[in-house]
Amino acid sequence: MSEQERLMLVVILSLSAVNIVGFLFWLRKVFRQRREEVEKRFLHQKIMRQHHFAHFYGLESVGFFQMRGNGVLVMTADELYFLLALPRREFRIPLETITSVSNPWSHLGKSNFCKLLRVDFSNGGKKDAIAWMVGRDVDAWTRAVEEARKAVGRV
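Request: output the structure for the sequence above.
Response:
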C-alpha cells in the first residue's frame, strides 16, 4: 500500500469515526429529550414502574412488517404508557383494557432469545397485543402489571 493510499484510508476512517460519534451524541440527546417528555407528562402522577430503554417489538394489529425500537415504558395506576424514541410515537394502554400478560420468547416473529413483556388488550373492542424487552426486569414488570390489573378490577 502506497503512502497516499494509507493517508486516504486514515482520512476516511477519521471522518467515519467523527460521523459515528456525532450520531451517538445526537441519539443520546433524543433519548434524554424523550425521558424529559415523560417526566413532564407524569409530573403530577405517581409512576409505579419505569424503564428508560425498553425495546419495542411491535403492535400486533399493525402486523409483522414494522420496525422495532427503543423508548420509555411507564406504568401508572391507570395505564401503561410507551414513548418510542425514533420515530416519536406514543402508545397508551389503559389498565382496564388489559386482558392478559405473558412472557413469550418472541413477538411477531422477532426474538432476542429472552423473555418479553407481552400485554394483550382490547383496543376499541378489538383484540390487540404489544410486547417489549425490559431485560432482567421482565418478571417484576409482569407481577406489577398483574397487580395493577387486580387493583382496577380486571382480574
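The chain is about 35% helix and 35% strand.
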